[in-house]
Amino acid sequence: MSEHVEQAIITILIDDYAGYETQFLAQHGLSIHVKAKLSNGDEFNMLVDVGQQADPIIRNAEKLGIELANLDAILLTHCHYDHTGGLREIVEKARNATIIAHSQIFRKHYILKPKIRYVGVPYNARISELEKIGVKILLTNSPVEIAEGVFVSGEVERIKKPKLIESLVYEENGKLIQDQMLDDMSLIIKLKDKCAVITGCSHAEITNIVKHSQKVAGAKVTTIIGGLHLIDKSEDEVKEIVKELNELKIENAYVGHCTGWRAIATMWREAKFKVEVLHSGKKITLA
Asked: Name one GO molecular function term (predicted).
């Protein structure tokens, strides 16, 4: 048996939805804790994204008994503030963690409509600021195995052209360039004979992410966890994506954040796989 994860406990530390009577906090953002038991007996702990603000994440983690000081890694799936905003404060509690991200994640990233607004990594979490804390930073555009059976996807091969927000731009040498969101990456967890993918916003398009992840890990993706960014898609567009996921034989989708309630309702109607809604405090066990 090749290197793999025996079991992974996925805990949603923050999502846009707090759930019903959970007593957890919510915010517009996403942060997911991964506790993986590796095939060699080791344990690996990490975060996928750090939400928009650290305080509710820290409070939820304390309520869940999750020690942020024990983190081995923090993956930033892309630059947007609702996935990177809590970085500085989280890193101060997790000084031994390695931050992993795309090489262009710290670009100056704006949205122009309905009015210009900076939406990138906060300035208090730039490389120079993080280095003052002493944290380690790994910037990679290629897939990398960060623990036995745990992969960062690297840049996703875009077989299908994603529908991106036209008003997203970045500044480079005094010019504004339409942003293709090439920094959109995911986490891949390889179990014994299958894979799970944890996404941030799926700007690279979820079917591309699934196909790319299968190539990286060498196993079939059966589970999707995270945001799918279907909130701004038409019903026909959502139906087409669900049809493709049906064809890819997805078995479970745990979705939230930017997926959108209307799109989730369409998924419930059209999907041949199980669809569940994420919320702060939700736990998912993979084995």
From this structure: hydrolase activity
Note the pLDDT tens digit of each residue in 152-176: 999 999 999 998 889 999 999 999 9
CATH ID of 5-286, from 3.40.50.20, 1.10.10.10, 3.40.50.300, 3.60.15.10: 3.60.15.10
Q: Residue 3: what pLDDT?
A: 87
Residue 80's pLDDT is what? 99
- Residue 267, SS3? helix
| Percent of the chain surpassing pLDDT 70 | 99
Structure letter (DSSP) for residue 97: P
Q: What is the pTM of this model?
A: 0.97
Dihedral of the CA atoms 87, 88, 90, 94 (nearest 10)? 110
Label residues 190-220 b or e (16+ Cβ within 10 Å = b): bbeebbbbbbbbbbbbbbbbbbbbbebbebe
Q: Where are the domains of the chain?
A: 5-286
Torsion angle (degrees, nearest 10) of CA 75, 76, 78, 84: 160
